[in-house]
Amino acid sequence: MDAVESAGFNLTLTLNEIKMPAMFLKRISLFALFAFAFFLLAFLPRPLAAQAPTPPNILVTLAPLDRKTGVELAALTVDANIFEQNEHTFAQGTLTWKARNTDPANESKIVVGFPELASASATFDPTKFSAFRVLVDNKPVVFAPATADIVYGDAARDINWYTFELTLAPDEKKTITAEFTQDLGADIFPRFTYGMLVGNRWKNAVGSARVTVNMPAQTTGEQFVALDPSVPKFDGERVTWLWENLNPEADPGITFIRPSLWQTLLNERANAVQNPDDANAHLALGKTYQQLASEASPRRDNFLAQAVAELETAARLAPNNADAVKTLAQLYEQRAGAPSGPRDVNYLALAMEQWQKLIGTGGDADARKQLGEDSFYLALDSFSRGEYNRALKFLEDARNFAPDGAGPLYLRGRLDNQIKLTHIAAARADIQNGAITNALAHVRAAYGDSFQPTTNLPTDALALNHARIKTSPQAREIVFNLIPYPAPSESAQAAANQIVTAWNQTGAGQAELAADANGYALTLHIPFANDADLRARLVKLASAIPARSDWNLLRAALVPAQLDFTTDDDFLARRVHYREEVDLTAGQEAMQNALNEMSAALGQLSTASPDDQEAQLKLALLNHAQQWWYKQLGALTLDYELDAGNGVTRQWTISPNAPRTLEYDAEAIRGEFYIAGAVVGVGILLLVVLGLALLTRRR
Predict the structure, then answer these.
(1) What is the distance between the alpha carbons of residues 116 and 65, in angstroms, rounded to a whole number?
(2) What share of the chain is helix, strand, coil (3-state, %, to 5)?
(3) What is the mean pLDDT of the chain?
(4) CATH fold label, 2-39+53-257
(5) Which of 10, 147, 295, 522 lies 20 to 30 A from 664 at CA?
(6) What is the CATH number of domain 260-447?
(7) d(CA 280, CA 308)
């Protein structure tokens, strides 16, 4: 070790509690008070604008301001001892620099110092250390401010330096020392870093350098979280970096688990091994691993995995232990990611499973709050993937668990807005897929039950798709096939039943309703004495139909423009006269007027802003409704059948595009005379056969 010190650069850190002067302790106490104040401030609401973290204050090597100096650094050593006091970790030790004047004939007087920018991401301010002083010839130096350039990476800039003058005789070697005490803070992973990059300003390479960190007790490499820039030598207590002919390219540093927390971890590990069936032992160990995983580090995933294993063991051994269940749930939450996202939904599901176990226990309030927050996040996640019905289910869960909101994402007002946005998005998807019933349900959930794309057709509109009309001498039977828009529903069936009831109340016929998967069949049986009676009954039935635009075609199909149907019987023959004029013009014009009103509404809606979501939904729904009605009108057919009696029938299939006259005139022998003739013929034939039989017997 002496050979190294005489040749170069030495840095040693020792983690032992060292007695400090009263002045140092006073400074540490003040720093602890400030640290506690900042700890409390951490729990205050954060400002809306994110603030950059304060760069750490670290030690930095001594360097000349003038890069053309003739002085070289023969050796540099840093000895640092690590200890813990008042829940803070400290580094305390000495820095040594051995400068040599390479001019054998002339004295060298140079300005040396410490740059306030210790590295690209750290600062140096001697007033922010618990203690820092520099000695030359065993006398403290007083810093003077100066400005010089510094280069980190590719950028050079002028910065402030803390400087003093150094005088060396020809070929003289002089030792400069510094004593320091540095508060590394209350973090669970304190870090000690020594800024060395600025050391390349000396003439030639640094002869030798040593950095040693002494831990407060024997330990293992597992206590170290990060070692930079290379893995140093480690003897179980001391970590040491050694270099010769060094051109500094990186800053050596060590991140480690806080000594007291490390000892707690060792104790709890031993306890869990000695008591494998003790849930509390595994719970305590799991909480410690959870604490280690609470801060970002290269080993965070490993700490999380170990925490999960221990807490799952604790929950398995004591399933009714609310503390174990809650801690496991919190760990899954932690592993899922920050509440603001993005989050791992698999870990979120595991967390929610544990929170559910706490409903009805002492942890009910915390569980409901977290379940509300998690449900809201899952709703947002489902929404982003187009799973709108799943999102609505999670939003309902969020409302049930925490109706007043929970967490940074789930606010009461945002819940209502998100429900509306999800219904709107679901409606758009359903319109695109042709699921108009579902789309309308979502739209009305978003904008209220009064939402109606068009005002000239009822919400339970029914389109006439087909009619079958059969007329016989004493009765007329009509079957209307109706298709509801957009699909069968309770309200559509109620509208159809309303007509059935109204028709039956007229006494002009008997009506009944049958439903199938696609729509409804209205069957109407009308008895009549003559064609005048039939016409009167049809008019009476038509007057009972509600005054709705979608019923106009049905009304026109029910009552023909003209209907003559007579049957006259004489002694031998029956004369049949049938003439019916079918004209659906009035019903078609009424429907066309409704469609024209739709076109006008579509024109107005097409000028709406793309951001007007309600108008855009009305536009899409109205366009779909109009196209659907045009399709139904084009597909409408009517089948007519005449039963003239005596097995004589006639059929016509017509479309409603133009008026049509159906006619049938005929005269036929009455059916009973055909029967009588047949009986007489059979009798004569029997007499002939009998006569022939008698003649044959006489011969």
Answers:
(1) 13
(2) 40, 30, 25
(3) 87
(4) Immunoglobulin-like (2.60.40)
(5) 522
(6) 1.25.40.10
(7) 15
